Amino acid sequence: MTEQGVIERYCRQFADVKDVSFGQLANGFGFIEIDSPQCSGKVYLQGAHLAEFRRKTSAKPLLFLSQQAWLEDGKPIRGGVPICFPWFGGRSDAPHLPAHGTARITPWKLRAIENASNGLRLTFQWQSDGWALVYSLVLGDQLQLELEVTNASFQKQTFEAALHTYFLIADSSKAFLTGLEKATYLDQLTGKDCDAEERAIEFREETDRIYAGTHAQIVLEDPVWKRRIVICPKGSQSTVVWNPWIAKSQRMPDFGDEEYHGMCCVETANVRRQSVTLGPGERTLMSVAIREEFSEG
Ligand code: BG6
């Protein structure tokens, strides 16, 4: 829940920072709005969830946010960049626990906002179950997201994490992804390990895959809008690619039946076999820089 009085406190604390404002929905759900010369954006305090981002020079938002997204305490937001942590997907050992972990459905603390040379930097903190997280977002001409995880407990611990980025695209049946041609993957729909396909990824059916390995650059090509979204991950050993397609879209209550046409997720991650174990006091970083390019014509 957005703690009472927290929005007023942030308004006072960050009164001198240009280009940001704070607000609350009628249900009390708190957010930060960014409106700078370079971009606009919206971040909810629950989950430090970047829900909207658009460069001022771009006619289209970068991120998809469902028309049916829940913006309510304790519920995940369908779109933007949910942070999955400390586990990914459901927990077979504890099926009653929330899918994709607790970090995306609990409030984070806003620690700093700075006008950096490459944009506005927001820094959030979250602590739970012996984990201490610092998440920083730079919203400028590009988007830069960085998640630092510290094991703040006295024993070895293992986590999974994903920056579950929903991209807005014109038509998922025409868009394609390059950069993962040589990567093997786990097909989450069949549970099978699959060989590298040696070709671009296209969306023709429900797609739910965890690609292994590190990748310097992944490009989401959107020929209809003549946009290329260039995704540069660091510190991640997996990339999740997801589109729910027809039947799953119909099953999800917070997602429109036809919305799968206009989105796909490409997630910078360390999940499943690429989960990370840290000793007491150890820390690790995972980040992604995302930029868009438009071709002429
Ligand atoms: C993806 C997973 O990352 O997230 C899918 O690979 C899952 O299996 C999807 O369906 C959405 O998850 P959720 O919990 O937000 O509905």
Question: How would you sum up this structure, described in words?
Answer:
The protein has 297 residues and is mostly beta strands. The protein contains two helices and 23 strands. The protein has helices spanning 6-13, 245-251; strands spanning 20-24, 30-35, 39-44, 49-55, 83-84, 109-116, 119-128, 131-139, 143-151, 157-159, 161-163, 166-168, 176-178, 185-187, 192-194, 201-202, 207-212, 218-222, 227-234, 238-243, 263-270, 276-278, 283-294. The strands form four sheets. A nine-stranded antiparallel sheet has the order 6-7-8-9-23-19-18-13-16, with no helix packed on it. Strands 5, 11, 12, 14, 15, 17, 20 and 21 form an eight-stranded antiparallel sheet that branches. Strand 3 (39-44) and strand 4 form a beta hairpin. 40% of the residues are buried. 6-O-phosphono-beta-D-glucopyranose (BG6) is lined by residues 76, 89, 99-100, 164, 188, 208, 240, 242, 265, 267.
